[in-house]
Write a sequence for this structure.
């Protein structure tokens, strides 16, 4: 046992020794140096990586100095690799290079110390071109001319001049750097005076590249209408958003290895390169756009009578149903105003000549074709009722101002032919048949009414209630009476059934007793006393069953009457009862005397043939 | 003995109070009628309204109140009160006639009744209630008799089925009338220029213009707006203050 443990320990030691040899002597130390890009422009960072393989303890160069380039170490990484029981390790030293000026630069070989020896990197070349419009901040307080933005707002107004009340579509674009994980908190809102704006509708969201940078652009659409003439300023657009950004400048932070030169890139924080290493900061930012100048002209003075404030470009269609009616019947006239403009000011077309017609207030329904309700169709349903015979529905008129033509336009529908039958509007027959009012008010005090109402009633009449009968307590109290009747009826029926059951049980008992006695009579071992007593009992029981009386109250005469016996049978029955009484009360024929078979047969025959 | 005297005294006091109240109401009613006869319709309306608030109610009271509103040109309230008179007394010929006139004047719209509602209108809810009660107890008696009778009589079974069928029909009629277009939720538009709208906002699209006196059936209430079934099988929101329930 002890020997086997020693053998395992020796084997393990040999394996570890072999492995150690492999690690130490897998390959000789080597070094490489690469640039992420050999071509760059001024201000564009380039990564330099020096990789030392197969070496344990290494020491990188502290400073790499090249005129026109700013080079900073950004970190070290180690890699271990095992392949076919051979372990390799490598160390990478990362640097970021910021070209400060254009030109051809040579990064000289760098010395890497490996233990007691040293390695040299190859020489590297970097070509830097000039970049117009891009300046590099060389110190921390300088502001970049074109610093990257987390978010922007843009107000697009296609028209710079409009008329009072004219609807002008407006587009608002909010762009966010998607890395900032933006969340819109407020707005956007259009600030400014002298115009009304419709509710903003989000119309789209897409990813756009602006100046080489990706933005998540959210588009809102609305429409504005100027309330008065003059020169206005629309905007700026204001919005608030919450974004994820680097920590505030006054808080200590470890900057991104890619922002060594303090370019004020909001994403230079290490959070964006490794979100799990440190947390970013959520910050509210205000987004503003540039305002837009806007000129509003007043409407011309010569507005037609049917003009109600509609401005835009419209068409009108009209139809009426039904086309054949009686006088007083309703006709629904449907007119649809379609086009583009301020539909909130589009009112129902007016009836040019409404004499002989009764008009009901029209209803309207608007169906928009766009997000902001500038384009669509507004349908008006107006009920017209002819008071007299008519040939056609009068034309409908609708006027609007066309800002493109800069003039008023009047639309007029064609008359719609209809067939109206009957003379005048009928009056209610009930009203005509009533007597004259008894308490009519003074003349002239009534409003103008074509038909007059009936007289006033001087008696208050019967007191009544709006509460339904079933909802009143008296109704439910009244239900107690039939309930009591029902309960009484049920109780009476239950009692009746119980009584019936008792009688039935008695009858069954008597029938059972009669059958039992007959069975006894047929036996030969019965004494005369018992025989006659049981025979007379059978007769009593049968008579009791037939007459529904107590068997003890039945005598020979009663039994004979019950069964309607003839004189002979009556006599035999009487003798049977007498003999029974005699045996019962006199004590004669006691002992072991037996009844003759003739007598037995005679009694049995009599008893068995008794039927009511 | 003393208790008996006290009971008699209480009865007398109650009768006297009732008679006095009736006489007082009669006096007020006569006074309102006089105002009406003199053409003082607003005063007459005030008098009738006081009686309505204090009670007791009667069809004639609402009819006279409707007439007073009609004279002031308030057709919405006139129609409302004629309808109330007809709810209390279905066969009130004067109210029926004046309601027709007021509707013609106001061009008021009426609710369309469903066909069961139309056919069931030949009796009132109260009559259906009494019928349902009688049929129920008759059916119950027949069923009890069936339970306790040894021999099942065909006549008894038929009577049970018939009674319970009548009961079910009466209950259905009560439900239909009570929840129908002219049931307990019936209201009359009393405001002017009332528009039924698609949403609870004055700027919402209009569904239907409702002249005063038009009937609506209130389905739901939300704040100052009511959602109502409208004539022509439409539905829409109307301001709550512009319509009043017919049944008080």
């Amino acid at each position: 046992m002890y020997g086997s443990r020693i053998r395992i320990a020796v084997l393990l030691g040999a394996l570890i020794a072999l492995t150690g040899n492999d690690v130490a002597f897998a390959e000789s130390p080597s070094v490489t140096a690469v640039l992420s890009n050999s071509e760059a422009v001024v201000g564009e960072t380039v990564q330099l990586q020096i990789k030392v393989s197969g070496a344990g303890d290494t020491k990188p160069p502290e400073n790499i100095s090249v005129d026109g380039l700013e080079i900073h170490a950004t970190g070290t990484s180690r890699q271990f690799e095992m392949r076919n029981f051979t372990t390799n390790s490598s160390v990478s030293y990362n640097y970021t290079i910021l070209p400060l000026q254009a030109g051809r630069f040579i990064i000289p070989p760098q010395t890497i110390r490996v233990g007691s020896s040293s390695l040299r990197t190859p020489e590297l070349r970097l070509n830097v071109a000039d970049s117009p419009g891009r300046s590099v901040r060389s110190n921390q307080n300088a502001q970049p001319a074109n610093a990257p933005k987390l978010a922007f707002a843009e107000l697009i107004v296609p028209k710079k001049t409009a008329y009072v009340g004219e609807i002008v579509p407006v587009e608002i674009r909010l762009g966010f750097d998607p890395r900032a994980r933006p969340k819109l908190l407020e707005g956007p809102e259009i600030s400014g005076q002298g115009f009304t704006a419709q509710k903003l509708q989000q119309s789209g969201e897409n990813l756009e590249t602006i100046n080489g940078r990706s933005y998540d652009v959210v588009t809102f659409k609305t429409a504005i209408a100027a309330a008065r003439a003059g020169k206005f300023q629309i905007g700026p657009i204001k919005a608030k958003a919450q974004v994820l950004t680097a920590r505030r400048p006054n808080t200590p932070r470890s900057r991104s290895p890619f922002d060594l030169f303090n370019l004020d890139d909001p994403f230079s924080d290490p959070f964006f390169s490794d979100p799990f290493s440190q947390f970013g900061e959520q910050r509210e930012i205000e987004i503003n756009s540039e305002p837009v100048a806007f000129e509003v002209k007043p409407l011309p003075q010569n507005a037609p009578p049917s003009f109600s404030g509609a401005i835009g470009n419209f068409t009108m269609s009209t139809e009426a149903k039904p086309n054949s009616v009686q006088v007083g019947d309703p006709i629904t006239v449907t007119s649809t105003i379609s086009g583009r403009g301020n539909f909130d000011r589009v009112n129902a077309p007016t009836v040019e000549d409404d004499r002989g017609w009764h008009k009901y207030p029209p209803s309207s329904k608007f169906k928009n074709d766009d997000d902001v309700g500038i384009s669509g169709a507004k349908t008006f349903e107006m009920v017209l009722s002819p008071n007299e015979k008519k040939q056609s529905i009068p034309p409908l008129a609708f006027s609007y101002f066309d800002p493109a033509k800069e003039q008023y336009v009047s639309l007029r529908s064609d008359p719609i032919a209809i067939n109206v039958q009957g003379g005048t509007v009928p009056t209610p027959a009930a009203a005509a048949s009533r007597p004259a009012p008894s308490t009519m008010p003074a003349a002239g005090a009534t409003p103008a009414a074509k038909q007059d109402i009936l007289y006033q009633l001087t008696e208050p009449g019967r007191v009544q209630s709006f509460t339904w009968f079933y909802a009143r307590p008296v109704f439910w109290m009244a239900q107690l009476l039939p309930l009591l009747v029902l309960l009484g009826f049920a109780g009476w029926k239950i009692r009746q059934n119980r009584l019936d059951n008792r009688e039935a049980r008695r009858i069954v008992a008597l029938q059972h007793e009669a059958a039992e006695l007959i069975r006894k009579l047929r036996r030969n071992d019965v004494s005369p006393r018992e025989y006659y007593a049981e025979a007379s009992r059978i007769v009593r029981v049968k008579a009791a069953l037939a007459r529904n009386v107590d068997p003890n109250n039945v005598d020979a005469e009663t039994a004979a009457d019950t069964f309607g016996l003839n004189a002979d049978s009556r006599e035999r029955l009487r003798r049977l009862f007498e003999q029974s009484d005699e045996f019962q009360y006199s004590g004669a024929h006691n002992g072991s005397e037996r009844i003759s078979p003739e007598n037995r047969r005679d009694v049995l025959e009599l008893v068995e043939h008794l039927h009511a | 003995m003393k208790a008996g005297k006290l009971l008699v005294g209480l009865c007398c006091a109650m009768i006297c109070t009732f008679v006095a109240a009736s006489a007082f109401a009669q006096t007020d009613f006569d006074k309102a009628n006089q105002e009406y006869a003199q053409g003082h319709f607003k005063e007459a309306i005030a008098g009738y309204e006081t009686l309505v608030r204090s009670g007791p109610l009667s069809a004639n009271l609402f009819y006279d109140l409707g007439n007073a509103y009609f004279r002031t040109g308030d057709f919405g309230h006139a129609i409302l009160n004629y309808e109330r008179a007809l709810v209390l007394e279905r066969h009130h010929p004067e109210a029926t006639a004046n309601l027709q006139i007021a509707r013609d004047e106001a061009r008021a719209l009426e609710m369309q009744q469903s066909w069961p509602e139309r056919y069931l209108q030949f009796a009132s809810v109260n009559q259906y209630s009494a019928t349902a009660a009688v049929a129920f107890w008759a059916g119950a008696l027949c069923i009890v008799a069936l339970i306790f009778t040894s021999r099942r009589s065909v006549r008894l079974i038929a009577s049970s089925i018939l009674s319970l069928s009548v009961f079910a029909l009466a209950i259905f009629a009560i439900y239909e009338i009570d929840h129908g277009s002219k049931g307990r939720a019936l209201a009359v538009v009393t405001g002017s220029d009332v528009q039924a709208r698609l949403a609870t906002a004055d700027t919402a699209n209009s569904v239907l213009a409702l002249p005063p006196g038009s009937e609506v059936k209130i389905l739901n209430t939300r704040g100052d707006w009511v959602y109502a079934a409208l004539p022509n099988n439409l539905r829409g929101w109307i301001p709550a203050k512009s319509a009043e329930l017919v049944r008080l």
